[in-house]
Amino acid sequence: MRNLLRMLALLLLLTLLAGCNATALAEDDDEEIYFSDVISMDMITYNNVPWEFPVDIMDMEPELIRLANKQTLLPKDFVPQNLVDVPKLRLNDAGENTSGGVRYVDGPWQLSRECLQALVALCDAARAEGYELYLKSGYRSYRTQSYMYENRLEKYGYDDGWVARPGSSDHQTGLGCDVVPKKWTDRGMNEDMAREPETQWMAANCARFGFILRYPADKEDVTQINYEPWHLRYVGVPVATYIMENGLTLEEFHEELAAAIEAFVAAGGPVSMVDDLMMD
Ligand SMILES: [Zn+2]
Hints:
- The chain has 9 helices and 9 strands.
- By secondary structure, it is of the alpha+beta class.
- A hairpin with a 2-residue loop joins strand 1 and strand 2.
- The protein is globular, with a radius of gyration of 22 Å.
- The structure holds zinc ion (ZN).
- The site of zinc ion has 6 residues, from strand 7.
């Protein structure tokens, strides 16, 4: 359905461009003025209703922006589509990644296919700049998360905020992963990791691969999760870019998006364009 909409939008754009060129050729005095009148990228409209949110409808995949937190629990039987095994990194003599994998510990791991592809690209780019990154946690099922949560409760006697309760873990989406520098592969994770050059590289570069820092330092009141400089969440490049440039959390993104959808529909925008982006 989304692909169909995408295709229709593209066709419409091509038609507009073609019409525009023809007119522009006929009256070449007004060429530039006419062109910018028709294709004004900051005023995307659907059925003549403007979509004023900074990220276009077509640049958001419902599955990729799915929220899992204490308020929005994933169902017990929720398993992401496209889960794949994470291959171990193999390099040839030229230092090229021949396995389509990453370095990892505590595995084997699974991730959603899109997330894995982006993670491989991110780790390869980091390596090219001299930073080795290790995947330390990937997809976790509802059941695994339950064990982890119960064990933590038993050990400490209370919920210390370090292990998400079942259904609320970003790891259950298949799009969340913990990525750490080598010297942190075998020690307890804490926010001191943020001082490592690898982690700083990740924070500065993750968005261009489609990742956000899911649990930022200054947003613990919003996420209700401690700062985790290692936890990346794949959302796709356009959404990641917007979130990271504006210092948002996924929760805040959804709040803004919900308001934009409400305004769009209230102005007569077609519900079918946005209904799969709305949270249940
Ligand atoms: Zn994590």
